[in-house]
Amino acid sequence: MILKKIFSFFLIFNLTFVSTAKAATTTATTFVDSFDFSAQEGSPTGLTFSSDGTKMFVTGVDNRSVFAYTLTTAFDVSTASNVNSFDVADEDIRPWGLAFNNDGTKMFVVGFVNQDVNEYTLTTDFDVSTAVFVDGFDVSGQDTQPVGLAFNNNGTKMFVLGGKGVDINEYTLTTGFDVSTASFVDSFDVSGQDTQPQGLAFNTDGTKMFHAGLDESKAYEYTLTTGFDVSTASLVGSFDVSAQDEQPRDLAFNNDGTKMFVIGSSGDDVYEYNLSCAFKVTSSSKCDAPSKIKEVRGLINAQIETAKNFADKSSGSALKRLSQLRSKSKDDVTTQNFDINFSNPALAQLTNLAPNLAVANLNPLHYIVPENWASWMDVSASLGKIGDTSLSSAQYITALGISLGADKKNNDNNKVLGVALRLGHTDVDVGTYGSSVDTNAISFSYYGSNTIDEDKFIDHVIGASHLRSDIVRRNSGDTNKQKGDRRGNQIFGSLKFGREFEINDTNIIPTGRMDSSYTILNDYTESGHEAIKYGVQYIGSLMASLGLKIDRDDNLEKSILKSRVNLEYGKDFASNSKVVARYITGSSTVDTYQAYTKDRDILKGGLGFDLTHEQGLTVSIDYERKQILNSGHINTFSLAASFLSKKETEFSLGLNGNMTSNFKISKTLGIFDLGFNLENDFSNQENHNANLSISSQF
Predict the structure, then answer these.
(1) Rounded Cα distance, 203 and 380, in Å
(2) What is the pLDDT, as a whole number, of residue 536?
(3) Which is nearest to 580 in space by CA: 523, 502, 644?
(4) How many CB atoms lie within 10 A of CB 63?
(5) CB 604 within 8 A of CB 570
(6) Of residues 190, 206, 196, the one with CA closest to residue 151
(7) Of 399, 583, 597, nearest in space to 473 by CA
(8) β-strand 524-525 against 506-521: which pairing, if any?
(9) Which residue among 53, 61, 316, 581 is least packed, with the fewest CB closer than 10 Å?
């Protein structure tokens, strides 16, 4: 009957249905600041940044050079300062357009006069002073006035903006970032927007394309249904930059598209803009659905992993305790009592008013643990990184937890029953821009073990948790933070069965295990700019695993040292979670997507040691590595200790009317009595006495 009730816990499934609606809201582009480079160049034509935004590069036709600037704050032009330059006049006297490969070991400059793209190698990444000319590629067959340049991510496609044909020409490169291998593919006409196009840029996946225009003093935005295929481009809209400069010559973006930079020849400045939504420049553009934003995905995944991991640790600490109890040959016998007394009559009345407070203990469970029940404590710390994908930002996990438990072993039928309380704190840093999930959690669980026969067992854990998270979302270039407070409740359970094989002093224990958890996270709404409202989220998880534990006992003089190795393979085969979200301003369209997929393979490996003193105190140290295949890993370190309530350690604290105190500890170890007495005179900080005594009665 009991097993049926336990098994019924694992039949919890969360049936989810996924829609494809897209949430969107209108965008805003805001001017922030500018940087004057007129001391270096009076006729700018090209602009780009290093991959980390700590360097900026400007080219122009007055000095026929590429000028390099360092930025003390990445992608903040107000922090720029000129460091060096590189003369390109030997290749072309009118450089017009500029780009680098990903790691800065190659530089490319468009030559307006010779109608080519010139390639340089740099011996030091993004250091133009180390540039050496390699080769050039003639583009005159497509356009005789090239004025813009861009590449796709791996350099297998090159794009050249033509001022004569007023179009964007696409080339394929058989060797990435090697212009000598380029061949023309197709072109896209932009004359309908501006007859003097300037500069060229794409977003990271090539589904957005941008160029500037002198006729209208605007930046133009296009969507591409196929990334980096200009034949699939269509106009979205334009953004007027004439308030800053009437002659925009080039434009660029930071990595996540929350900043746009425009270089202008009227004021010889670089202008910086904030974009409320990534790579959305025009008012006609719409913000990406929440599920398309890497930071949002990363935060959602962090909340899911935190909930699942807390359930796993809550069950795991109880199961580890049961494993230790099976391996012990005698009961724990270490406890503490605490007594407070005052010689001052006025202070002594306090103890008379509250006689129950005269008993305290270093172990918090002493108040409620009956005699002959063992109490234990397990402390763990976890570090890990998971979830770095093209859709989701990485999650860097730091988790601390402490479990307090009490149990009683019935030697007549080899049954164990116990309860445990776990407190946990998890910090997850998401991405690199300051997003985070900070969670406090508490769980209460009931656990037990039944021995089927001498060497077979079934362990079970059932519990409930409460979680509270502080969530911060932040994108690069966005000084605003979107914040939220989310709470949730959870039930969880584990069922573990195994058999022990003893060979000499070594135990070999194959096990099977099922773990399930079901979490409900409340809805919450972010505060801040472009805030998102998230609906109630249900997280279901069901996992099966097979494991092998090998341990060995070594007898020491006064204790037993047990060393062990654990190996486990698990399949997360029935896990799911649906996310419902929408922007709180703009469109009310709801975005619903499946945030968590099943069928994950998980490997666990660990080693540990138990040191059990003959008087009963047990201290355990463990290390475990959890490897989530194709996702990441978590390392966990834990320290545990267990005690049994036998009333054999006594503590007393005394405060006297003459401002002196005494603290006494009495401990029975076999036939010996240990005593420690500390006296302190508060009126004289130099008057302290400490005494240690050992005695035995015959």
Answers:
(1) 43
(2) 96
(3) 523
(4) 17
(5) yes
(6) 206
(7) 583
(8) unpaired
(9) 53
CA 640/CA 619 separation, integer angstroms: 6
pLDDT of 545 reads 95
Complete edge-to-edge strand list for the sheet that includes strand 233-240: 197-202, 208-213, 218-224, 233-240
**Ranges 174-188, 277-291, 337-351, 597-611: which has the least confidence:** 337-351
**Backbone phi and psi for residue 318, each to the nearest 5 degrees, phi listed first:** -70, -40
* Residue 148 and residue 250 in contact, taking contact as beta carbons nearer than 8 Å: yes
Of 455, 373, 456, give the one whose Cα is nearest residue 420.
373
Helix (H, G, I), strand (E, B) or coil at 266: coil
Task: Decide: residue 396, CB within 10 A, 0-12 exposed, 13-18 middle, 19+ buried.
Answer: buried
The two three-digit tokens of residue 150, written as one number: 């861009």
Question: Helix (H, G, I), strand (E, B), or coil: what is residue 327?
Answer: helix
The percent of residues in the chain predicted with pLDDT above 90, rounded, is 57
More confident position, 121 or 659? 121
Residue 160, classified by CB atoms within 10 Å of its CB into exposed (0-12), middle (13-18) or buried (19+), is: buried
CA distance 86 to 338: 78
Residues 14-65 have pLDDT tens digits of: 333 333 344 445 567 899 999 999 999 999 999 999 999 999 999 999 999 9
Are 22 and 33 in contact by the 8 Å Cβ rule? The answer is: no
Tell me how far CA of residue 690 lies from CA of 678, 680, 685, 687, 695, in angstroms.
Answer: 4, 9, 14, 10, 17
Separation between Cα atoms, residue 476 and residue 178, nearest integer Å = 31
Summarised one tens digit per residue, pLDDT across range 517-543 is 999 999 999 987 778 999 999 999 999
The closest of 176, 183, 182 to 155, measured between CA atoms, is: 176
Alpha-carbon distance of 229 to 231, in angstroms, equals: 5
Cα separation, 252 vs 48, in Å, equals 6
CB within 8 A of 354, min separation 6: which ones? none
Whole-number Å distance between alpha carbons of 130 and 210: 30
Q: Which residues pair with 146 in a beta bridge?
A: 162
Q: What percent of the chain has pLDDT over 70?
A: 79
CB 206 within 8 A of CB 228: yes
How far is the C-alpha of 72 from the C-alpha of 80, rounded, in Å? Answer: 7
Mean per-residue pLDDT over the chain, rounded: 83
Sign of CA dihedral 381, 387, 388, 392: negative
Nearest to 439 by CA among 313, 275, 272: 313
Contact 461, 330 (CB under 8 A): no
State the Cα torsion 346-350-351-356 to the nearest 10°.
180
* 253 close to 203: Cβ distance less than 8 angstroms: yes
Q: Classify residue 479 as exposed, middle or buried by CB count within 10 Å of its CB (0-12, 13-18, 19+).
A: exposed
User: What is the C-alpha separation between 589 and 22, in angstroms, rounded?
Assistant: 6
Residue 287 pLDDT > 60: yes
**Residue 469 contacts residue 439 (beta carbons within 8 Å):** yes
| Phi, psi of 496, deg, nearest 5 | -130, 135
pLDDT one-digit tens code per residue, 569-610:
999 887 889 999 988 876 567 888 887 656 789 999 999 988
Alpha helices, H only, 476-545:
none
Phi, psi (deg, nearest 5) at residue 140: -65, -25
For tokens 């929408």, the residue is 582
- Which whole-number Å values give the CA distances from 9 to 93, 318, 494, 575, 599, in the listed order? 76, 17, 9, 15, 20
